């Protein structure tokens, strides 16, 4: 029993390591084939064992000999593994292979929050589970219909052998074409047909060569689903570690296979007189075995595979309406061909326009359907929507790029924060604390930052219909888009767009101050404005849109832009948002502590920045509510704040206290600095 346990434990590693191995060691054009060869080799070894075992063990007395012979290849593999000196190649196989360490529990939460992964988790689990159940119960399923052990063994040989061949063939085509989704659709559809054939052939006792063909067909199209589905899983959950994603997926297939093996016999029915006369289940055995007719389990297995490929439109639409991104939509379409028509439903694209870009225009302003709005305007230009920081200075040079629905244009405006004392008549903040009385002059002076305003200057306009850009500063129309680009033109669109990242991950795109760098990094989207005699480069602040699912949380009301006073550095802009699974720093006030993951934290991230703590860095975080004795007192929150010396040197987190005075005013106390800052909500 202990030996069986060790072997089973090793098998779990063998099942998911090939995908991680091929992802790290092979290029994109070799990865699918390498994964298919590795997984197919495992099943090919099972095939050899199934063929050689009856030859080596003609009777029970030879079982020890079989065990001794099995030690030889296992020992040889163990000796060869001692020569492995590195987990990664000296040179990365692909620029996209970047190890991003993440806590296991956080990775697990993100996996199950990815609806596309859950769909693949279920789909791949059922497909491979059916494969495992069929290979395990094949003798019990066939013997009631008169098929002897020799026929069953040959069927298993065709089943596994053709599956190994299919893995090589489809892995090769996947590498050459890169069309994983199309191949997976073909395999799911073909698997449905193959399982129907195998059920009909077994139950109707057709000639044996038809049975052999059916098993070969099932193996050829169902076994390749394992490596192809593993590759698809990595596509939809990157950058979550490969071992975690694949391990969970393998676990699903094993659990579903075990459930089928346990449950299917419950649906077996007693044999009738004819079946009792032809059954071979009790032949060549001394033990009395109760033979059952497995026709119902066979029909159930075929129905499951058909269901995976032919789901009702209403059910597919219901699933699609809960997807959060085009990538999730694409991943689901890989599971079912019917979803191709569902993916064009305009109600889905209306939700995506709002979910991803906060675009929810009135119908009278919309000149086209939401599918065209997304694909023709938001897909090419949506990545530029939001707030951007120039390389002009520490603070300043902030621009806001937004969509004009009625004119189908993208407008970029420069934002400057100025004081009332400057005498510029622009948009003032609505200050609820203002009154007609003069009040105390000192108090008015201390709260003068509440009377701030924005000055907006239009920089450029992009016409999405003609793809022309008007630069207002130099009054020049550009017929092409050479001055709006991504730093790495070879990078895929989904690798850089907002919809490829969850809400919490978008803010992590920019984790440095570009003023201290010679140029932008390859992962950063940027665009430059080349007109007159100069060139200005803008970098994304990656401000996430407020999540529509957080409306019930008490801290979600503080989502948005805020302006605050940091003393000598004047007025600064920060973006505040409720974030899930925030990882607290391990060191606060110079003291180390265990890493803590806060399920709901209010994170304030700098937009304009200053010479000490630059833009995009965390300013403060509210983590835990503080219990109050007086119920009439407002709820305050324990938290952390970030401080640093000039140049972002010796950056550290200190304890802080966040007190919401109202829905529009926040008070932040920095304990180590003995300083209190006030923040006022911004509204344009």
TrEMBL record:
Example GO CC term: the record gives: membrane
Q: Which GO terms describe its molecular function?
A: transmembrane transporter activity
**A Pfam family this chain is assigned to:** MFS_1
Which SUPFAM superfamilies does this chain map to?
A: F-box domain, MFS general substrate transporter
- Which superkingdom heads the taxonomic lineage of this protein's source? Eukaryota
Residue ranges of the TM segments: 6-26, 33-57, 63-84, 117-138, 150-174, 186-203, 209-234, 246-264, 289-308
Q: How does it sit in the membrane?
A: Multi-pass membrane protein
Q: Does Transmembrane helix appear among the keywords?
A: yes
UniProt keywords, alphabetically: Membrane, Transmembrane, Transmembrane helix
- Return the PROSITE patterns for the record: FBOX (PS50181)
Report the subcellular localization: Membrane
Tell me where in this chain the F-box domain is found.
Answer: 305-352
Q: Does the keyword Cell inner membrane apply?
A: no
Put simply, this protein is called F-box domain-containing protein
> Per the UniProt entry, what species is this protein from, by scientific name?
Rotaria socialis
């Amino acid at each position: 029993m202990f030996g069986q346990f060790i072997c089973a434990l090793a098998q779990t590693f063998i099942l998911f390591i090939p995908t991680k191995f091929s992802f790290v060691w092979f290029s994109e054009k070799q990865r699918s084939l390498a994964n298919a060869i590795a997984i197919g080799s495992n099943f090919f070894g099972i095939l050899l064992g199934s063929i050689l075992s009856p030859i080596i063990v003609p009777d029970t007395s030879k079982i020890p000999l079989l065990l001794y012979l099995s030690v030889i290849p296992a020992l040889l593999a163990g000796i060869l593994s001692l020569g492995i000196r590195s987990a990664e190649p000296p040179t990365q196989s692909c620029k996209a292979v970047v190890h991003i360490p993440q806590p296991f529990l956080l990775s697990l939460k993100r996996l199950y929050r990815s609806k596309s992964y859950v769909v693949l988790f279920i789909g791949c689990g059922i497909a491979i589970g059916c494969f495992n159940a069929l290979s395990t119960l094949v003798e019990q399923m066939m013997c009631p219909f008169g098929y002897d052990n020799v026929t069953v063994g040959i069927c298993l040989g065709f089943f596994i052998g053709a599956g190994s061949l299919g893995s090589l063939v489809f892995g090769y085509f996947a590498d050459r074409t890169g069309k994983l989704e199309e191949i997976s659709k073909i395999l799911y559809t073909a698997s449905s047909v193959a399982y129907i054939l195998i059920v009909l052939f077994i139950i109707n006792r057709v000639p044996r060569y038809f049975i052999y063909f059916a098993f070969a067909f099932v193996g050829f199209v169902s076994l390749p689903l394992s490596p192809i589905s593993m590759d698809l899983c990595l596509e939809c959950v990157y950058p979550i570690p490969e071992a975690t994603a694949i391990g969970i997926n393998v676990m699903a297939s094993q659990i579903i296979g075990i459930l089928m093996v346990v449950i299917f016999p419950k649906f077996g029915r007693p044999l009738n007189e004819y079946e009792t006369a032809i059954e071979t289940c009790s032949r060549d055995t001394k033990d009395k075995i109760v033979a059952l007719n497995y026709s119902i389990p066979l029909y159930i297995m075929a129905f499951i595979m058909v269901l995976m490929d032919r789901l009702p439109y209403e059910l597919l639409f219901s699933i699609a309406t809960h997807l959060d991104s085009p990538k999730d939509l694409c991943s689901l379409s890989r599971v079912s061909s019917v979803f191709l028509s569902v993916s064009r439903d305009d109600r889905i694209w209306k939700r995506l326009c709002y979910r991803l870009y906060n675009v929810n225009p009135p119908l009278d302003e919309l000149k086209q359907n939401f599918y065209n709005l997304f694909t023709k305007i938001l897909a090419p230009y949506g990545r530029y929507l939001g707030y951007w920081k120039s390389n002009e200075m520490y603070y300043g040079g902030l621009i806001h790029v937004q969509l004009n629905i009625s004119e189908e244009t993208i407008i970029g405006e420069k934002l400057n924060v100025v004081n009332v004392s400057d005498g510029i008549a622009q948009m003032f903040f609505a200050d609820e604390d203002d009154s007609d009385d003069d009040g105390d002059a000192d108090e008015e002076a201390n709260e003068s930052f509440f009377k701030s305003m924005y000055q907006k200057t239009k920089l450029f306009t992009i016409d999405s219909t003609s793809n022309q850009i008007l630069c207002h500063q130099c009054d020049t129309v550009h017929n092409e888009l050479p001055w709006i680009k991504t730093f790495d033109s070879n990078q895929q669109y989904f690798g850089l767009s907002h919809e490829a990242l969850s809400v919490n991950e978008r803010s992590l795109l920019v984790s440095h101050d570009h003023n201290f760098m010679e140029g932008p990094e390859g992962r950063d989207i940027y665009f430059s404005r080349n007109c007159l005699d100069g060139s200005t480069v803008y970098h994304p602040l990656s401000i996430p849109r407020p999540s529509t699912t957080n409306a019930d949380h008490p801290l979600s009301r503080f989502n948005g832009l805020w302006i605050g006073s940091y003393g000598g550095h004047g007025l600064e802009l920060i973006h505040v948002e409720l974030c899930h699974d925030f990882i607290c720093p391990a060191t606060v006030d110079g003291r180390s502590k265990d890493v803590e993951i806060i399920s709901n934290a209010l994170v304030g991230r700098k937009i304009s920045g200053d010479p000490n703590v630059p833009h995009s860095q965390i300013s403060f975080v509210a983590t835990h509510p503080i219990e109050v004795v007086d119920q009439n007192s407002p709820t305050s929150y324990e938290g952390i704040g970030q401080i640093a010396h000039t140049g972002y040197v010796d950056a550290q987190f200190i304890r802080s206290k966040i007190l919401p005075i109202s829905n529009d005013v926040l008070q932040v106390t920095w304990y180590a600095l003995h300083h209190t800052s006030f923040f006022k909500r911004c509204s344009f």
